[in-house]
Design goal:
Elements lengths: L1 H26 L14 E3 L6 E6 L4 E6 L16 E6 L8 E2 L1 E2 L10 E8 L5 E7 L6 E8 L4 E8 L7 E8 L2 E6 L6 H10 L4 E6 L4 E8 L2 E6 L5 E6 L4 E7 L5 E8 L3 E7 L6 E6 L2 H5 L9 E7 L7 E8 L7 E7 L2 E6 L5 E4 L1
Parallel strand pairs: 6-10
Antiparallel strand pairs: 1-25, 2-3, 3-4, 4-5, 7-8, 8-9, 9-10, 11-12, 12-13, 13-14, 15-16, 16-17, 17-18, 19-20, 20-21, 21-22, 23-24, 24-25
Length: 353
C-alpha cells in the first residue's frame, strides 16, 4: 500500500513538473519565429556590445546603458566592465562616446541595467541607473555635467524592497518608481519563482522619506515609464506578454486601469514625448535569448503602440529581424525621426525613419 501511495505521489509530482515546464515554454514563446520587417536607413553603432536600455533628453542627447552581465546570460565582452555611453542625435553623423564617472565610484563592478533621466526645475539633469555590482541590487543617482561629458555620482540607494531591480523611471531628483522582476534576490529562488509562475514581482515607489510597494501580482515586471502628462505609469510584464497602464495618484500610489495583451516578450518601454506613443523593445522568442546558440540566435522586434488609453490601441511592428543583424532587442527610443534600438548583449542600431 505504501509503495502505491509513493508511486502515486511521484506521478503527480512528475505531471506537475511537466505542466510547469510546458507553461514556461509558452511564456517564453519558445516556438515562435519572426518574419523580417526591415527599415531602409539603418546602421550598427560602432563601439557598442550590449545596450540594454536607452534614454533620450529633450535636447537630443541619448544615454546608453552598456555591458550588462548576469550568471548564465551570454556576453560578447565578458571581461569588460559596464558603462554609460552618450550620443548627440543632433550631430550630422552621431557617434557613441563613453561618459567619465567621478572618482570614488567603483567602476570595476559597475553592471548597469535600466536607466532613467530627470530634469529638475533649475535644468539640472539627473541620471538614475539600476546597478548590479557583484550581482547585487542598487540604484545609482548621478548628476550629468554636460560641459565635461561626465557623471558625478551623488548617491547609492539600497533597500529591502528593492531585491531584484530591473528598470526605473525617475519622478524627482531622488524619487523614482522601480520594477522588481522577481520577489527573491537569490538566483535559485528566482529560478523557482519563475518556474512555478508565482506572480510575486512588483513595482516600488522610492523617495528619501518613503518606500512602498505600489503595484504587485506581476509575472516578471520589467520595463517601466511614465506618460508625458505624468498621469500614468506603464509597466511591461515580460513573461505575461502584457503592458499594464496604472494611474498615478498624488500620494504616489498606483491604480491599474487596463492591460494590453501582446504576442511577444515586452522588455523596455520608451515614450515619444511629442505623441505619447510607446515604443517597445521585444523578444519574439525568449528561449533563444537565454539559451544562446550562435547558429540560431535570438531575434529582435520593435513595436509602436499608439493611443494606449483607447479601447483599441494601434500596435505596429516597426522592425523585426531574425538575429542576422540584431540579436535580443531590449529597447527602442525615438527622437526627431531617428530610432535607436538597443539589445541585451549584442549590438545597437541607428535608423532614420
Amino acid at each position: 500500500m505504501g509503495r502505491l501511495v509513493a508511486v502515486g505521489l511521484l506521478g503527480i509530482a512528475l505531471a506537475l513538473l511537466g505542466e510547469r515546464l510546458l507553461a514556461l515554454r509558452n511564456r517564453l514563446k519558445a516556438s515562435r519565429e519572426v518574419e523580417s520587417v526591415d527599415l531602409p536607413h539603418c546602421h550598427l553603432i560602432k563601439g557598442i556590445a550590449g545596450s540594454e536600455d536607452i534614454d533620450i533628453l529633450p535636447n537630443g542627447l541619448a544615454f546608453f546603458s552598456v555591458g550588462l552581465k548576469f550568471p548564465g546570460l551570454h556576453s560578447f565582452a565578458p571581461d569588460k566592465p559596464g558603462g554609460i555611453l552618450m550620443m548627440d542625435l543632433k550631430e550630422e553623423k552621431p557617434r557613441a562616446r563613453e561618459l567619465r564617472i567621478s572618482r570614488g565610484f567603483d567602476l570595476a563592478s559597475f553592471n548597469p541595467h535600466g536607466i532613467s533621466t530627470f530634469i529638475d526645475n533649475d535644468d539640472t539633469v539627473y541620471l538614475f541607473v539600476v546597478n548590479h555590482p557583484e550581482f547585487k541590487n542598487t540604484v545609482e543617482i548621478f548628476k550629468f555635467e554636460e560641459a565635461e561629458n561626465s557623471l558625478l555620482h551623488l548617491k547609492t540607494v539600497k533597500h529591502e524592497l528593492l531585491p531584484s531591480v530591473n528598470d526605473i523611471t525617475a519622478v524627482g531628483p531622488a524619487h523614482f518608481y522601480a520594477t522588481n522582476d522577481h520577489y527573491f534576490s537569490d538566483p535559485f529562488l528566482k529560478y523557482l519563482e519563475t518556474y512555478l509562475n508565482l506572480h510575486w514581482a512588483n513595482v516600488v515607489y522610492y523617495s528619501p522619506n518613503e518606500v512602498k510597494v505600489v503595484a504587485e501580482g506581476f509575472d516578471s515586471a520589467n520595463g517601466i515609464n511614465i506618460s508625458p502628462d505624468d498621469k500614468y505609469i506603464y509597466v511591461a510584464d515580460i513573461l505575461a506578454h502584457e503592458i499594464h497602464v496604472l494611474e498615478k495618484h498624488t500620494n504616489m500610489n498606483l491604480t491599474q486601469l487596463k492591460v494590453l495583451e501582446l504576442d511577444t516578450l515586452v522588455d523596455n518601454l520608451s515614450i515619444d514625448p511629442s505623441s505619447g506613443d510607446i515604443w517597445v523593445g521585444c523578444h519574439p522568442n525568449g528561449q533563444k535569448l537565454f539559451v544562446y546558440d550562435p547558429n540560431n540566435p535570438p531575434s529582435s522586434e520593435v513595436l509602436r503602440i499608439q493611443n494606449i488609453l483607447s479601447e483599441k490601441p494601434t500596435v505596429t511592428t516597426v522592425y523585426a529581424n531574425n538575429g542576422s543583424v540584431l540579436q535580443g532587442s531590449s529597447v527602442a527610443s525615438v527622437y526627431d525621426g531617428k530610432l535607436l534600438i538597443g539589445t541585451l548583449y549584442h549590438r545597437a542600431l541607428y535608423c532614420e525613419l
